[in-house]
Each structure stands twice: as C-alpha cells, then as structure tokens.
Amino acid sequence: MRLLVTGGAGFIGANFVQSTVREHPEDEITVLDALTYAGSRTALAPVEDAVELVEGDVADAALVDKLVSACDAVVHFAAETHVDNALSDPSPFLHSNVMGTFTLLEAVRKHGVRLHHISTDEVYGDLDLDGSERFTETTPYNPSSPYSASKAGADMLVRAWVRSYGVRATISNCSNNFGPYQHVEKFIPRQVTNILTGRRPKLYGTGANVRDWIHVDDHNSAVRRILDQGGMGRTYLIGASNERSNITVLQAILRLMGRDPDDFDHVTDRAGHDLRYAIDPTVLRDELGWTPAHTDFDDALRATIDWYRDNPQWWSPLKDAVEDRYAKRGQ
Ligand SMILES: NC(=O)c1ccc[n+]([C@@H]2O[C@H](COP(=O)([O-])OP(=O)(O)OC[C@H]3O[C@@H](n4cnc5c(N)ncnc54)[C@H](O)[C@@H]3O)[C@@H](O)[C@H]2O)c1
Q: Which domains does the chain carry?
C-alpha cells in the first residue's frame, strides 16, 4: 500500500510510521507534516531511509492534491492537539483541524483515495466522575474546549463527505495516549521530565479528573486494523478500559521513579476541565477482533519513563520553554 501519513512527525503519527515500517515493510510511506512546535524530524530518524518526509501544511490544497494523487490511502493524524494552547489561541486549531481536514477530504474525493481520520474521545464532552457510563459510537457529540470542538467539526466533515460524495473513509475516536515521543507539554511526559530535571510535578486542581489511558502502540494497532478491515463510513472507538484519575497516575509515576507519593504541587486547574472520559471498545473487539497488548499499566508506564530517561536529547531542548509557558499561566 502507498500510504500518506499526515502529522507523521508528531507523537502518535511517528509511532505509527515506525511500527508500519517494522510490521509492513511492503508499504511505501510518505509523511506530510508542517513540523510545528509539536512535530520533530528526529522522531522519524530511526526510519528515515524507509520514509519520505514532506514538510508542508495539510491545508495547502495544491500540495495535498499532489500527494493524495500518488497514494492508495491516507491516515490523517495532523492536528493541533493541546487543550491548554487551544484555550490561549484557538485560531491554529480551526486552521489545521477543520480546514486541514476539509482540504484532505476534497483531495480524497477527487482521486478516489481511502481515508482514515484520527479523532479523539474528547468530542463527546465528559462523563460524571462517579458514573459507570462509557462513550459508544452513538454517544452525541458535546465538545467542551476549542480543541475538541475543532476535532468534532472535522469528524462531521468526514461523515458528510461519506454521505454526500461517497468518500471511502473511516473515523476512530481514541482515549488518552501515552508512550515514547509524546511532547513534554502533555500530562505524563511533563511529570516524568519534571522529576528528571529536578522540578516538582504539577497537578491541575485536585487531580480527581479521570482519563482512560492507552499505550500509543495499541492505538496504532487498532488504526491499522480499521484501515485494513474497517467498514466504509464507520466510526470506531478505541480504548483499553484503563480508567485512572490524574492523581493516581501521578502517584504511580512518583512511585516508579522512587519518589515520595506527595512530592508534587497542586496548580490552577484548566478552564472547563473535562471530568471523566471512558471508552466502550466493544464494537472494535467484537467486529474487528482487536484487543490491546499493553494491559499492565505499571509495566507500560515504567517503559515510558525509561524511554524519557534514556532520550533526553529528544525532549530536553523543548522543556524550558514549555515550563516557562506553564509558569506564566500559574500552572
Ligand atoms: N495524544 C492523544 O492522547 C490523542 C488521543 C486521541 C486522539 N488524538 C489525535 O491523534 C492525532 C495525533 O495526536 P498527537 O498526540 O500525535 O499530536 P501531536 O501534537 O504530537 O502531533 C501533531 C502533528 O501534526 C503536525 N501538524 C499540525 N498542524 C499541521 C498542519 N496544518 N499541517 C501538517 N501537519 C500539521 C505537527 O507538526 C505534529 O507533527 C490528532 O489528530 C489528535 O487529535 C490524540
């Protein structure tokens, strides 16, 4: 398969490209990435001989048309992704997430190319902290932040292009990912690298908010399964049934790094902070036979911590600027 991977120099995209090179050496991969602050060439260094990296904007219609015309399928990861950044300045989120997806849809429509669109469970809003309800493929959209609203808008465009133009597309909405190459602005890498650089971890509010954590390789194995076997026009929810409060995750990191469980600071909570996300992955399991491989959270978290400990050259150039930005917001 000739694959175009948008956002393939970001966290999940780079892991997807690396695992595809390992597991499907027959595929030809082109990455389209704007190399924003969140993208890094070095995340693709281990596979640079096997992949073509094109630096460009997914909202650049001429470039996207040319690249789409030369591929069999597009896996669309490219997006602005950090909720705190969206709260400060939503504009790039509308550009990359909404206009970028629109641009790609027009190109796959013109060239009859298969699309898999990567989205998030955040489009569904949040759930009661104490409830047992989980998101399913039919949960109504109810986004809370400019980030999730822009992803919801992109998902709606994909659905409309399937219905109106018969575009061959699938959508997946996944829960919170962790693993190597995640930007240090995000929750788990931020805490780990705070400890590694002698800073104290920072917890928003009381830390009661619950997230449903999945290892990035499990997300990507599900994406590949949907790309190969998913039903056209279908939406699949990807999750590993691994709900944990933020304070529990932080204390697991502290424990695994040999620190006192109370060795952190509470900081100003995020505006509109979603309370709880939880995915019901039954459809993916029953229809496509997908299950996650990284089911021991402590083991997967320990491996992730080890990766950050072993790869300071990848993240340390980013760290000070990220912490300066957080400090200005009192976080
Ligand atoms: N991280 C998570 O926990 C999570 C969970 C569910 C879904 N998702 C979705 O997965 C996708 C990837 O997320 P991530 O965590 O890897 O994000 P990331 O921020 O680490 O990477 C995003 C990548 O997209 C690129 N990009 C941004 N705007 C672009 C544009 N206009 N043109 C081309 N490239 C552009 C960036 O340079 C970067 O390489 C996103 O669509 C996100 O909504 C993420």
A: 2-178+214-238 (3.40.50.720)
Beta strands in 124-168 (DSSP E): none
CB atoms within 10 A of CB 184: 24
Q: Is residue 122 flagged as an active site residue?
A: yes
pLDDT tens, residue by residue, 11-25: 999 999 999 999 999
* Residue nearest (by alpha carbon) to ligand 1 atom 26: 78
CA distances from 84 to 10, 80, 87, 178, 259 (A): 17, 11, 5, 18, 27
Q: How far is the CA of 155 from the centre of ligand 1 (A)?
A: 14
Q: What is the DSSP letter of 47?
A: G
CA nearest to 275, candidates 142, 170, 107: 142
Cβ 42 under 6 angstroms from ligand 1: no
Contact 142, 197 (CB under 8 A): no
Catalytic residue among 33, 57, 106, 122: 122
**The predicted structure's pLDDT at residue 81:** 97
Measured distance CA(329)–CA(76) in Å, rounded:
31
Q: How far, in Å, CA of 322 to CA of 191, rounded?
A: 12
- Rounded to whole angstroms, the Cα distance separating 150 from 98 reads 6
Residues of the chain under the 50 pLDDT cut: none
Please state, in angstroms and as integers, the Cα–Cα distance from residue 163 to each residue in 103, 157, 193, following that order.
17, 10, 45
**Catalytic residue from among 33, 57, 106, 147:** 147
